Amino acid sequence: MARPGTRIIQAKLVLVGDMGTGKTSLVLRFVKGQFFHHQEATIGAAFFTQILSVSEATVKFDIWDTAGQERYHSLAPMYYRGAAAAIVVYDISTMDTFARAKKWVQELQKQGEEDAVMTLSVHTKLCFLDTVPDWLVSCLVYLCISCLIMGGNPKLVMALVGNKSDLDSKREVQVEEGEEFAQENGMLFMETSAKTAENVNELFYEIGNTLLMLI
Ligand code: GDP
Ligand code: MG
């Protein structure tokens, strides 16, 4: 329960990454403090909430765990729309999942850009009551895309997570590889273990802290 006068923010957070990387396990560790060796594949909607005290504030996370869409390597718009943060998960013991994580980052960046362009086009049309010629709208949209490609989607806080750090003896992805990719893409980076709980609370704390600094 938040103390009276405490600043409270609500943040939608989505988890993406290949099946089996431990997305559901990370959420269950964070929300319930539990871990299952035979975690069942997520089917249907998977939505969790958790409250975390961050500095002098309280962050209420609305967590959307991807439920089967990993299979199709793309996300339904309802998952990422309005998201304040995204966690992209790979498994440090499987190189393929790291390659896929990079694709997920591109996917999130692309969807953020498309959303912004769509919003801008609609707003331009609404503001000028359709008196704006189409070519001008196209120019504005083009400008917007260029800015976004250069600067990325500044609103979405993204974290790259190498999960299963307890499997160090089977490691295929080096810490430096994760760090470097995260840095290049302006993401937070952490290696976690849903099994031992290493860095799980720290991950959500870091995300909460970054969100607080942005608003
Ligand atoms: P998801 O498909 O990404 O949601 O992955 P799950 O959470 O269903 O986990 C897939 C499998 O990996 C399950 O058997 C989990 O028990 C296991 N797993 C998840 N996290 C860890 C971890 O940190 N360490 C180890 N050793 N196994 C994990
Ligand atoms: Mg799952």
Automatic annotation (TrEMBL):
<protein>
    <submittedName>
        <fullName>Uncharacterized protein</fullName>
    </submittedName>
</protein>
<keyword id="KW-0547">Nucleotide-binding</keyword>
<dbReference type="GO" id="GO:0005525">
    <property type="term" value="F:GTP binding"/>
</dbReference>
<dbReference type="GO" id="GO:0003924">
    <property type="term" value="F:GTPase activity"/>
</dbReference>
